[in-house]
Design brief:
heterodimer, A: about 300 residues, alpha+beta, about 20% strand, B: about 80 residues, four-stranded antiparallel beta sheet, globular
Chain lengths: ~300, ~80
């Protein structure tokens, strides 16, 4: 079976001659299946273009040409990506169907301006974020968000003593059939839910200790790494539900949908106290952390 | 438009690390994941596991990623 033999991947140069030899042993019908598969995994406009490019070629040459086109396209994509993110393979139909089936009746555990988060009903450790619409303005594309989340998570791990967490990025898909982030699912409540009385503040929460740590973490992000979250608000700060004693994070920063490198931040406009303010210099997440802390403390004292 | 499966460099490194010095057919837990994601150098059927996607390693080889919910593991997290 051709699909099993190549399992959704494109032969690299080193395997090319073996792949060509393999092709000569296939029936026309099997080669036709492979052509269909190679064309089915690209977006419609590109598919039309590729179909036109191969239509007059012999069947076997069509497959070889499509392999080359896929390889070139993959190399072009990799060059355009953020530095800590790798596009690895095209997606198999099997994978798309697996995830679609899983999220069909999945519980929604969060919703923001641009995305919703669903809990995996099978694997309690995984949650999926789906964008509700294409990013607008300064919102990150899914791949930029994935890149930022990966970076933030690594920095949080390097500063484990602060006990601030960022959900671990498992993988992400930027295939038009399935656009999502798969990430670590947290057993935590958001400050937004606490303020809205949809969740209780976890027992034993020491607000000042947590927010001092979060303040230290964003200082590290901003000043040492030149990274800015730019959307710290009650909905994007979460507190772990249980008291942990083993050094696990107690407070989490989520949603890197607006996060930027310093070099990109000069033209960012953010909403502060109800007004849009242009952040030109001295950009910092510090004020937003203190604002969330103040609101939570006021709520607890009422 | 971009398409495909992506992961971060650190995740890719963890996958590579999990496959160091193991048999080509071995299914091993990926370090620093949730204990329910495994890697193998072989695309095969493993009981209780769902194949997710493949990632390229050096030298034209690939790692195949599986999710095995509830599988007992050692040294995964």
């Amino acid at each position: 079976m051709i699909r099993e033999s190549f399992s959704g991947s494109i032969p690299t140069e080193s395997r090319k001659s073996a792949a060509q030899e393999y092709l000569t042993n296939l029936s026309d019908a099997q080669i036709g299946d492979e052509i269909d598969r190679l064309l089915s995994v690209v977006e419609p406009k590109l598919r039309e273009k590729w179909e036109a490019m191969i239509e007059n070629l012999p069947l076997q040459t069509q497959v070889e040409r499509l392999w080359e086109l896929h390889q070139k396209r993959k190399e072009a994509l990799v060059k355009a990506l953020p530095e800590n993110v790798a596009i690895l393979q095209e997606m198999s139909h099997e994978f798309v169907e697996t995830i679609r089936e899983r999220v069909k009746d999945a519980k929604e555990i969060g919703r923001g301006d641009n995305g919703k988060v669903l809990a995996d009903p099978v694997n309690k450790h995984i949650a999926y974020k789906f964008l509700l619409r294409p990013p607008i303005g300064h919102q990150n594309s899914l791949i930029e968000e994935a890149s930022m989340q990966g970076l933030f998570h690594e920095i949080a791990k390097d500063h484990a003593e602060l006990r601030v967490g960022v959900p671990r990025l498992e993988y992400f898909s930027i295939d038009p059939r399935l656009t999502m982030l798969a990430m670590e699912r947290l057993d935590a409540v958001s400050v937004r839910d606490i303020l809205d009385k949809k969740a209780a503040i976890p027992e034993g929460t020491d607000i000042d200790t947590l927010f001092d740590s979060l303040g230290e973490f964003v200082k590290e992000l901003n000043e040492k790494h030149g990274l800015f979250h730019l959307d710290i608000r009650p909905g994007n700060v979460m507190i772990h539900k249980s008291q942990t004693t083993s050094g696990h994070p107690r407070i989490y920063l989520i949603d890197m949908g607006m996060s930027k490198h310093k070099r990109e931040v000069r033209s960012v406009v953010v909403k502060e106290d109800g007004a849009f303010v242009q952040k030109v210099d001295k950009v910092s997440d510090h004020g937003s952390v203190q604002s969330v802390r103040k609101r939570l403390k006021q709520f607890v004292q009422e | 438009m971009q398409t495909g499966i992506g992961i971060t460099e650190s995740r890719l490194a963890a996958i590579k690390k999990s496959l160091e010095n193991v048999d080509a057919h071995a299914l091993v837990a990926i370090p620093d994941w949730d204990g329910q994601h495994f890697a193998s150098q072989t695309r095969d059927t493993y009981e209780g596991c769902i194949y997710l996607f493949s990632v390229p390693l050096e030298g034209g080889t690939e790692a195949f990623i599986y999710e095995c919910v509830g599988k007992e593991t050692e040294g995964s997290q």
